[in-house]
Automatic annotation (TrEMBL):
Residue ranges of domain Subtilisin-like protease fibronectin type-III in the record: 692-804
Keyword Chloroplast found: no
Pfam families, per database record: fn3_6, Inhibitor_I9, PA, Peptidase_S8
Gene3D superfamilies, sorted: 2.60.40.2310, 3.50.30.30, Peptidase S8 propeptide/proteinase inhibitor I9, Peptidase S8/S53 domain
Record's protein name: Subtilisin-like protease
Family: Belongs to the peptidase S8 family.
SUPFAM superfamilies: PA domain, Subtilisin-like
Compartmental location: Secreted
Keywords: Glycoprotein, Hydrolase, Protease, Secreted, Serine protease, Signal
Gene behind this protein: LOC101769659
Amino acid sequence: MALQMRLHCYYHHYPVLLLLLLALAAAAGGVAADDAGGRGAERTYIVRVDADAKPSVYPTHAHWYEAAVLSAAVAGDGSGEWPEGGPLIHTYSAAFHGFSARMSPAAAAALASAPGVAAVVPERVRRLATTRSPRFLGLLSSPPSALLADSDFGADLVIAIVDTGISPAHRSFHDRGLGPVPPRWRGVCASGPGFPPTSCNRKLVGARFFSKGYEATSGRMNETAEVRSPLDTDGHGTHTASIAAGRYVFPASTLGYARGVAAGMAPKARLAAYKVCWSGGCFDSDILAAFDAAVADGVDVVSLSVGGVVVPYYLDAIAIGAFGATEAGIVVSASAGNGGPGGLTVTNVAPWMATVGAGSMDRAFPANVRLGDGQVLDGVSVYGGPALEPSKMYELVYAGASGGASSAADGYSASMCLDGSLDPAAVRGKIVVCDRGVNSRAAKGDVVRRAGAVGMVLANGAFDGEGLVADCHVLPATAVGAAAGDKLRKYIASSTKQRPATGTIVFEGTHLGVHPAPVVAAFSARGPNPQSPEILKPDLIAPGLNILAAWPSGVGPAGIPSDTRRTEFNILSGTSMACPHVSGLAALLKAAHPTWSPAAIKSALMTTAYVRDNSNGTMVDESTGAVAGAFDFGAGHVDPMRAMDPGLVYDISPMDYVSFLCNLNYTEQNIRAITRRQADCRGARRAGHAGNLNYPSLSATFVAAEAGTGRATTMRTHFIRRATNVGGGPAVYRASVSAPEGCNVTVQPRQLAFRRDGQRLSFTVRVEAAVAPGERMEPGSSQVRSGALTWSDGRHVVRSPIVVTVQAPLQ
Ligand SMILES: *[C@@H]1O[C@H](CO)[C@@H](O)[C@H](O)[C@H]1NC(C)=O
Ligand SMILES: *[C@@H]1O[C@H](CO)[C@@H](O)[C@H](O)[C@H]1NC(C)=O
Ligand SMILES: *[C@@H]1O[C@H](CO)[C@@H](O)[C@H](O)[C@H]1NC(C)=O
Ligand SMILES: *[C@@H]1O[C@H](CO)[C@@H](O)[C@H](O)[C@H]1NC(C)=O
């Protein structure tokens, strides 16, 4: 199976079902599809060691690691074949102690019991799942916003972008007006094809690439198609980097859309690019090497728009690398994934990371379909080439149903507009309706254009709902939702030779001030948290729909080889685009509050997030138009100005995470694999449950054992929290509770009187939920109710969502 780019960008569209299957395959067997490389059962393993356990006979850790792999191979199945240079792929020493190497499962099992080895984790492969967003977030105002000014735009901080590399010559990364590189920076500028040593400057202070893990599994990379250097030949990494920290660029637009000033969240922060994603995907061993280098280089924030996997934290290289980074004081912000709108789809869910979902902004790109019978169907597009003829009506054809298929193809392939499935004679000069799914949205446009059609309408199926993404198609094209798609297919089905179906696409350009906004993007991945439901995920949402940001000069905006157009900026959608917004904001917060821990910064972002939209309703879900909840948007939509001065924060130390892992009932060996600490879980387990991690949100999960038995049941739990006063002086906070429907929530004490800045005070939140005597719940079903706990001193409002999940047992 050919796995292509797997960034968390919706623009590289992967069929959702295929993604689900891959995720399930990874979860079930632990053997990813990409392992079918014909190299026997060998695969890459990541090995954590106790650094102090190195026997003195080995001069270096690398000698020790090599000897360990060789003897494990002998003990395992007596074989082992390694490339020149030995068995080690990467060695790690900063975020993590250990190495990666290829070996057979038998050798891995033997190694796992070798002295000094804490864990052996099979590698997995990840997929990569603006002009407006700074203003939408209140950052662009004149005079400059207090947040930007107070933090000097994050000038001394370095944001690591772990992605597809970077296009260094882009105007968004110029270094005019920036001071010298911060003296504590220890990174390098790795050069290579297309990336001379002069590529770095005072803005782009470092660049590295990591391909050994990729090539150990996939074979030597094709250097015609991709380059062995930090150069971005895809576009995704350039786009995300400029969202986090692009400079002010004016004018910026994509083929005329979204014209204005482009700027990242922290325009003066420095960037370091760590390229880990290649045409074959993003490999765990390389991602971990990037974390390791980023920690050693001295970055302040790691931004990771790469998909997660559904495995326990001790088997998850991103969770493990992120823990090491967090321990070093680095904020790790990661994309939640694009698997929405279904539940349980959120990824990158470890509590020490910020998990970022995607929302819309108050900007839209309407491109409506006008039909011959007078109907107008709402659509969106950022197509910017030669237009259709004004006021002409074109014949419409649905390739799946009306003979548009070529003789070699079936109706299904044609309905999807797969390569070679359209009959040029049947579609020439017409507008073709294609169903969404299987191949990428941009690729469908290319298929339709090559078949000789003049336009395309991309229609959602029921599975896609009403979520729309505006694309930079290669021909006049627009996207419509599931309901409009049904109308369109019906209209075409009812046409006859005498009365053909006709229509056209009306491109309206850029609209601002759209209501309601934000809405939760349909694709944004949803809770509950599949690994630890006690921790609400996603944490929050940020702009991720139709985001304009920098684009490399060597790549067309549609992201397909046949697209020869060039544009300095491109509009993409995905949680990939939401994550770097939070990364940049985290840098601003860290600049303004240098002593805050990563958990404190995340707390500030979460407790000040808002849940109302610009129509003053609770934010809605794009896929249904219905009111969204905490599993959709977490604590809410990020509000940078308020995050600057949160009043209180919920802080978490690395030891607190150890207690949390103890309360997940992980073994001490598993905990050591993540934290490299010897955990003594007895105390932690006595002290309570995983929900007592000092997290800025509250999630109570009950199993209603007696649901449907006719007996009334009340279920109770409690949470302990500890708030730190960061408001600057004495303050008295009072609690107010909006209890989830049908639940009782009590807070004790109801008042926190802080005498000084930095003081910590604890409180308890008790939650009671009930199943009424007559209440029936389907076996395995669950009820989710949301509320909130808010502390206020009259000046600050510190809000934590409370989610109560009552689950009926399976039988
Ligand atoms: C390498 O990539 C180029 C450009 O995509 C392609 O033409 C060539 O066939 C590839 N070579 C191999 C060995 O796959
Ligand atoms: C917004 O809605 C809330 C809750 O319904 C209400 O209390 C508030 O007054 C409203 N604000 C405005 C500006 O309408
Ligand atoms: C851990 O084990 C204890 C005792 O068996 C159990 O009560 C608790 O629910 C378990 N916790 C989790 C998170 O599985
Ligand atoms: C909430 O408290 C009230 C008053 O004490 C009680 O009648 C009710 O049963 C409680 N509800 C739950 C869900 O525990």
